[in-house]
Amino acid sequence: MSVKNLMRRNIVELDPYRCARDEFEGSAEVYLDANESWRDYIEEKNINRYPDPHSSMVRKALEEVLGFPYEKTIVGNGSDELIDLMFRVFCEPGKDSVLLLPPTYGAYKVFASINDVKIQSGPLSADFQLDEEAILGALDEYKPKLLFICSPNNPTGNKMDFEVIRRIAAANSGITVVDEAYYDFSDGESALSLIDENERVVLLRTLSKAWALAGARIGICVSSKEIHDVLYNVKYPYNLSLPAQTVALNALLNADKVREGVIYTIKERAFIVAELSTLPSVSVLPSDANFLLARMPNAYEVYRKLIEKGIIVRFRGKELGCENCLRITIGSREENLKMLDALKEILG
Ligand SMILES: *Cc1c(COP(=O)(O)O)cnc(C)c1O
Predict the structure, then answer these.
(1) Which of 288, 244, 284 is nearest to 262 (CA)?
(2) Which letter does DSSP use for residue 39 in this model?
(3) Helix 255-276 and helix 242-252: axis angle, to 10°?
(4) Residue 82 region, left (φ>0) first, then alpha (ψ -120 to 50), else beta?
(5) Is the CB of 208 under 6 A from ligand 1?
(6) By three-state DSSP, how is residue 170 classified?
(7) CA–CA separation, 3 and 51 (whole Å)
(8) How far apart are CA 325 and CA 154, in angstroms?
(9) Ligand 1 in contact with 78 (CB < 6 A)?
(10) Nearest CA to ligand 1 atom 3
(11) Is the CB of 103 under 6 A from ligand 1?
């Protein structure tokens, strides 16, 4: 069965918008084709011109640095745009469903609701791993168009067993989206290797976390060529601004520095785990990400008291299976020490 059969009919049949920069590629002396201003006022090079709709330079760098095939990669205005695109391309509003695996990233639910897509749920096991049998059962029962697997998972921090992901994706006749926003902090295998063997697998990455570009909004989606081409027609034509493309390229050309930063973060993660283990009332989940999920008595009160001391963490105690949990991002050594001191003082 072609993956096109999983898509909304109107999307498959879409006659995509062609922008000026699509019709003429290459370089010329005089551009009078896009109704741009002939000058700029803020001395930001080329900011008076529309950006490259293909984000070609960024995608070339992604291929060279991260091995994402150019022809199968699109970049979006954050992962947000790409998650929303998945719903818009595959799910008929008011009719189709998505399978989510709580506790997980909140954005999936929000974009499902915005697109009027029914949410089914296949909770993770008590140790926050994929419950293979339950998930296969839910796929069979609900026949969702989309399944989102977040690995390493937010807010729990653990990665999922790769072979289980592979088996679930093989059994899933819908689309399996694997969100690897925190992949750089883990030592797991990437779903990138599944894309060639399974045309229904979609990989999401982002430059917001390890690559330190949250402010620039750059998400990455790798998929089979068939899915890629359709996502391409549906995305906003100029979805990455020129400044975003410029900083993305810059970061990718500085991959060595980024990797040093990731090593620092992983060391700090181990340091915080060791420090928190000296607090008898706190238990910390093993993390493959740049944050820790820590359980403690009266977590909400601890959260409020941390705010009073000027330290902001995330209260996650309302998420399924995360009662009394705080999600703490790994910061610099200085920030981490301030957080630890405050926590030690609050917990006595
Ligand atoms: C932070 C995060 C993202 C990244 O979102 P952007 O829109 O790219 O900043 C994606 N998925 C998960 C699970 C995250 O935690």
Answers:
(1) 288
(2) S
(3) 80
(4) alpha
(5) yes
(6) helix
(7) 31
(8) 13
(9) yes
(10) 181
(11) no
User: pTM of this prediction?
Assistant: 0.97
Which of helix, strand or coil describes residue 9? helix
Q: Do β-strands 291-295 and 283-284 pair in parallel, antiparallel, or remain unpaired? A: antiparallel
Q: How far from each other are the two terminal CA atoms of the chain, in whole angstroms?
A: 61
Q: Which amino acid is at 19?
A: C
Name the residue with the closest Cα to ligand 1, atom 10: 181
Query: Predicted confidence band at 287 (pLDDT cuts at 50, 70, 90)?
Result: very high
Report strand pairing: 201-206 vs 175-179.
parallel
Nearest to 195, CA basis, from 177, 220, 218? 177
279: which DSSP letter?
S
Q: What is the pLDDT of residues 201-215, one digit of tens each?
A: 999 999 999 999 999
Ligand 1 midpoint to CA 153 (Å): 11
- Are the beta carbons of 204 and 83 closer than 8 angstroms? yes
Q: What is the pLDDT of residues 7-54, one digit of tens each?
A: 999 999 999 988 887 788 788 999 999 999 999 999 899 999 999 999
Between CA 131 and CA 298 the distance in angstroms is 29
Q: What is the spatial order of strands in the sheet that 291-295 belongs to?
A: 283-284, 291-295, 325-329, 314-315
- Cα gap 227→40, rounded to integer Å: 38
Query: How far away, in angstroms, is 82 Cα from ligand 1 center?
Result: 10
pLDDT, residue 20, reads 80
Between β-strands 325-329 and 97-100, what pairing exists: parallel, antiparallel or unpaired?
Answer: unpaired
By C-alpha distance, which of 208, 105, 103, 101 is closest to 146?
Answer: 101
Residue closest via CA to ligand 1's atom 5 equals: 79
Rounded to the nearest whole angstrom, what is the distance from the C-alpha of residue 189 to the centroid of ligand 1? 19
pLDDT of 127 reads 96
Strand 291-295 to 201-206 pairing? unpaired
